[in-house]
Please model this.
Amino acid sequence: MKSQILFLALFSVASAFVPSSNKALQLSTSTAKHYAPLPRTTGNFQLEPLAAFAKKNKAPIEPIEEEKGWDAKTVEYVLLTIWLVGISGFILENNFVGPWPLFMKTVPERVFYLTHMVGGMLFGGGIILTTCIERLVANSKNASVLQFWFDKVPALDGLIVVPALTASMISGTGLSIVRYGGLNIAPPHVDAIFWTLLAFMSWWGVTDLSTQGAALESVNEMYDRFEDGETDLDTPKVVVDRHVSNVVSCFFVLILYSMMVLKPGTLFWR
Model:
């Protein structure tokens, strides 16, 4: 009897440290009762594919709007504005203050002269040549040719006309420094040349560069209509009107060369 009581006491202590389970525990002693297993509640549990679960809980992805930066034409306008302000400031500094920068006094006169001739040749030739080519392109009424031309005009300006004009103006200022002591004390015809150049750049920027973007857009629309099968297309009006601006630019070139050739002391330097 004592052994049975002791066995039951030990079993009670041990059961306190054993986690409960649904299995039945049976005692073979005469005093222990048989315990029946508790019914287990089971439900229909069905695994779904992970993809389906992810699809249910997946939030809709909103498209990320990319920040629109400056287009190529805007960048071109900004760079040309910076160039125009810089070269104008350089001319005005030398015209109203004095020789600047001072190292230009040490450059040989022939170096300035050669640079001035090459720059003037490329500048004047670029203006006249592009005027003639653009007129022929406009008269062709060929959408493919028009699109090709107005797509390449900014490259011609950036690679030939602007660098040539810059070299011509800087070397011309250098010649006035070496020959006369400075642009501010040079003869009046030298000042007239630079003021004419500034007038040309203003005209060129307002009437030519400002219409290149509109001309390219209208030509692209013309090309799209051509691709859709339309025929007998006319050259856009903005392209035809540019011819007046180009002709006036050519006259600026003629005036500038006339001043450079006919001014005193050009043919025979003393």
